[in-house]
Amino acid sequence: MRVLLPALLAAGLVPAALPADPTEQRDADIAGMVAAVSADRLRTDVFTLAEFYTRHTLSDTVSDGRGIGAARRWLKAQFEQISAETGGRLQVAFDVFQQPPTPPRLPAGAEIINVVATLPGTQAESVDRIYVVSGHYDSRSLGIMDTATHAPGANDDGSGTVAVLELARVMAAHEFDATLVFMAVAAEEQGLQGAAHWAATARAEDRNIAGMLTMDIVGNSLGEDGTRDASHVRLFAQGVPPLDPMPPAVLAQLRTGGENDFPIRQLARAIKETGERYVDDFEVRIIYRLDRYLRGGDHAAFIDQGYAGVRFTEPREYFARQHQDVRVEEGVQYGDLPEFVDPEYLAQVTRVNAAALANLARAPAAPTGVQIEAVALTNDSTLRWERGAEPDLAGYRIVWRETTSPLWEHSAWAGDVTRFTVPGVSKDNVIFGVQAVDLDGHASPAVYPTPWRGL
Question: Please, which residues have CB within 8 angstroms of residue 58's CB and are 6 or more apart in sequence?
């Protein structure tokens, strides 16, 4: 991204006392978390989950070696071990609820249990701000109601589940301003029921879920055509929130060309920028869509509750290894087997999530009251916002891009002010955003400005 501050300083258009943009530095502690992600541990955990034979939502809950009950007890024990090794900082619990009948996938209803590990934030001003990362630990075979057939679910979604477990391992010993929730959810294959319950409960309790990241099918780098691609991951990010009726604030943003700048896509941009800064030679490719055709993920349940949610998925899906009975047919091996998971690729996806979550949870909250002044005809652009309450707040960063560009192209460091003019850049021609930044350079997602027409 091009930073225009030096040119602005040289032209005398901003005070010379402004500090350098702190977002240009890297957090050595975050880099350490990224480096600590282990492909070997991920591989071992994928094989362990697959050994439960099936993790169908309605499978055995009593056996110690087979079925969804054994799987969730193993996951909970892993989180509890992480907590014990980090001084009890990780709060681990089963989230248990009774799902009413929802034909055809749960015709008699069921007891659903999510495994939830919470790492509370350490900053009083930020502890109520929450970031959730999830994978779904249930699996399925070809028959959606087949509770007995072998369904190892190594990639869908053993890969995302063990990535969440690995994130807890590498992050639990560290401190974050905001709260992190590591979650293995159930009943995704039965209609996102586990995630939907947790998200609905969060909304009913008015919890501040600032971002939700789900990893679902993130462990395979080999396409059906034999092409191997371990260079990037897809990040699905919906645009305009699906609200009916459309609130006035949403309509106002649409009228000013902000259809690509609602919180979900701002979250995706922040993830991409941070992930690519800390993970070399790996691209986060944002897809402007809720999900793939004919498929769905747990982030959608959070979006339905008004939260910003995104989904990570590998770039080349191998459909003979998803939702299939394990078999060999005409020389083709079908089934979601653990030997088909690429642990090095899975580790790269996990590293991106570690970097993004750590930055988000250490950054200030996204700024509020962001507006762009529209009171006179001018070729300069003046933005205003409300100052955050975080004690380590360094100031604010203005970002902008061409209206046809998906990513931020330019930035200027405003400093610890609540009003800033970008000279020579017309608000008519670009999209602006404002980020809050702390003293260590952690930046929030950007916020789109609404018009301010004076008092």
Answer: 68, 106, 110, 145, 147
315 with 416, same domain? Answer: no
User: By three-state DSSP, how is residue 44 classified?
Assistant: helix
pLDDT per residue as tens digits for the range 415-437: 999 999 999 999 999 999 999 99
The answer as to whether 15 is a domain residue is: yes
CA distances (Å), origin 157, targets 138, 261, 291, 357? 7, 30, 15, 20
Tokens of 230: 């371990």
Helix (H, G, I), strand (E, B), or coil: what is residue 91? Answer: strand
At 15, is the pLDDT very low, low, confident or very high (cuts 50, 70, 90)? Answer: very low
Between strands 393-402 and 410-415, the pairing is: antiparallel
Which DSSP letter does residue 414 get?
A: E
Tens digit of each residue's pLDDT (9 = 90 or more) over 279-302: 999 999 999 999 999 999 999 999
Whether pLDDT at 304 is above 70: yes
Residues 200 and 324 in one domain: yes
Q: Where do the DSSP E strands lie in 28-164?
A: 91-99, 110-119, 129-136
Tokens representing 158 are: 């053993």
Other CB atoms within a 10 A radius of the CB of residue 164 amount to 30
With a CB cutoff of 8 Å and minimum separation 6, the contacts of 275 are 282, 284, 351, 352, 353, 355, 356
Please give the average per-residue pLDDT across 153-166, as a whole number. 98
Q: In what order do the strands lie in the sheet with 393-402?
A: 2-3, 410-415, 393-402, 430-438
State how far the alpha carbon of 320 is from the alpha carbons of 55, 143, 311, in Å.
19, 14, 22
Q: Which domain holds residue 447?
A: 2-26+366-452
Check: CB of residue 197 under 8 Å from CB of residue 95. yes
Asked if residue 334 and residue 383 are part of one domain, the reply reads: no
- Establish if 116 belongs to a structural domain: yes
Report how far residue 35's alpha carbon sits from residue 20's, in angstroms, rounded to the nearest whole number.
27
